Each structure stands twice: as structure tokens, then as C-alpha cells.
Amino acid sequence: MPAKVVPKSRVRTTTTSKKAAPKKADRKAAVPATNRSKLSIVAEGGVGRIAPRRASLSQERSRKTRRRLVRAAARLWNERGFDDGFDDTTVEEIARIAGVTKGTFYFHFSAKNDILLELGWATADGLYNEAVRSAGAGRSGLVIVDQLLLSLARRVESVPRAAIVRVVAEFYGQGIISRRPPGRRAIGDSLAVALEAARDQGELPSTVDVEDLARSLTALAMDALLSWSQGDKRRLRAVLRSRAEILISGAATTAPAAPIRQRRSSSAR
Question: Are 177 and 222 in contact (CB under 8 A)?
Fold first, then answer.
């Protein structure tokens, strides 16, 4: 007698019982409290909140290291005289005075010339921050201009004159100022902030183009820096202040001519 065939739908297979995986909510509850606090930071975006703080601290440490290297180089150049000291001073000496390794120096600067450029960028950044703070505090725009020029003179006078010649030549002779790194400021930016405040406060006519005026004042300031660095015996701050007063007085009393297009339309009538 043939064997009876049992349909597959009736066949029961015996398997080892497995414990059902906990649901998502159960898994969260199953994690010990101490581990949950760590995991939740990642799961709920905590890393995103912490990362900017860490990045900010890292950037601040980097800025402090760069400042130490710049100060160390300036100290050595002042002691030895820039003309001979620049070439004679080694990267190892600069790093040692700054309290860092030679590798750290090359992490921040590719060569000693870059320290000269950093002197320029750091000065411009400092002046810009000063201008923004003063304008935000509601100070007179023209007073801020005077304050910025005095700060510029003080910073420049602390550096060997020969170094200023080289910095200005690098920035403006080589066109580096037009290829500024992201986030860096030019001296004209700080003057524009102050002049815009002066215009908004009625110290300058509303028609004054503060960008053009800032560029003109920057050009006069750079010429004064070069003259001083090449032996001008006058006090730098006095020269800067005198040039600014002449330029700004002219801008404040001279109304700009009407645009050519506007004059043509008026004459046609």
C-alpha cells in the first residue's frame, strides 16, 4: 500500500525557539542609564552641538600659537636688527623662543616671509575688530577713525622700520592684498566701518561713498607708513592724523557732482 503523502502546509518543523528581538523602544529602555547618556548624545545630535565648541577652542589655540611665533620672530629681529637679523634668524630659534617645535612652526607658516604677511593680516584683523566694537557702542565715527589711525601707528612703531618696508612691499607690490585668505581683513575694511558710522551719524554727507573714501585714506596711510619706515623723522601718528583730517574735511564740505546720466537728462529738458 503506497505511503500517504502529507501536504507541505501541514508539515510542522521543530526549530529552536529564539527570543524575539526587542523593539526599538524596548532597546532604548534596555540600555543601562550610564550608557544611554553617552549614546543619546550621538543619537540626538549632541556631537553636532559639541563639535563647534571644540572647533572654536582649536582655532583659538591655533591663533595663540601663531601670535607667539610672530612675537618671537619680532623680538629676535628687533634684538639683531632687521636688515641682518631676518636672514640670520633661523626657524629653530623662532620656535624655541615661542616654546613650540620646529614642526609646529611649519604647520602654521611655510617660511619666515609668511610671518611678515601675518604681521599685516593680524594688524588689519585687530583694527577691524576694534572698529566694529566701537561702532557697536555708538561712538562717533570720526573719533573711531582717529582711534584706528593711532592704533595703527602704535602697532607699526613697535616693528623694525625695515620690516615695514618689506611688509608693505609684499602686500601691495606683490598684489597679495587682492588675494586675501578667507576670513582675513584689510585695513580699509576697518576704516569703512568707521566712515559708515560717521555718515549714519550725520558727521559726513549722506552722499559720501564710504568705500571710495576708505580706499583713499588707506592709500594715504600706506604712503605715510612707507615714508616713516624709510626715515621720515616726523611722528607717524601725527602724519596719519593730518592726512586723514585733510581728506575727510574735503569729503565733508564738497558735495559730489551729479552723475553724468542725470545731468544729460536734466539738460535735455
Answer: no
Lowest mean pLDDT among 4-18, 58-72, 237-251: 4-18
Reported as a single tens digit per residue, the pLDDT across 59-85 is: 788 889 998 999 999 889 888 888 888
Burial of 269 (0-12, 13-18, 19+ CB in 10 A): exposed
Q: Which three cell numbers stand for residue 247?
A: 581728506
Write the pLDDT tens digit of every residue in 98-115.
999 999 999 999 988 889
Residue type, 68: R
HEC per residue, the chain: CCCCCCCHHHCCCCCCCCCCCCCHHHHHHHCCHHHHHHHHHHHCCHHHHHHHHHHHHHHHHHHHHHHHHHHHHHHHHHHHCHHHHHHHCCHHHHHHHHCCCHHHHHHHCCCHHHHHHHHHHHHHHHHHHHHHHHHHCCCCHHHHHHHHHHHHHHHHHCCCHHHHHHHHHHHHHCCHHHHCCCCCCCHHHHHHHHHHHHHHCCCCCCCCCHHHHHHHHHHHHHHHHHHHHCCCCCCHHHHHHHHHHHHHHHHHHCCCCCCHHHHHHHHHC
Can you read off the three cell numbers belonging to residue 131? Answer: 572698529
Compute φ and ψ for 19, nearest 5 degrees. -75, 130
Question: What pTM did the predictor assign?
Answer: 0.68
Distance CA 178, CA 173 (A): 11
Give the tens place of pLDDT for each residue, 122-133: 899 999 999 999
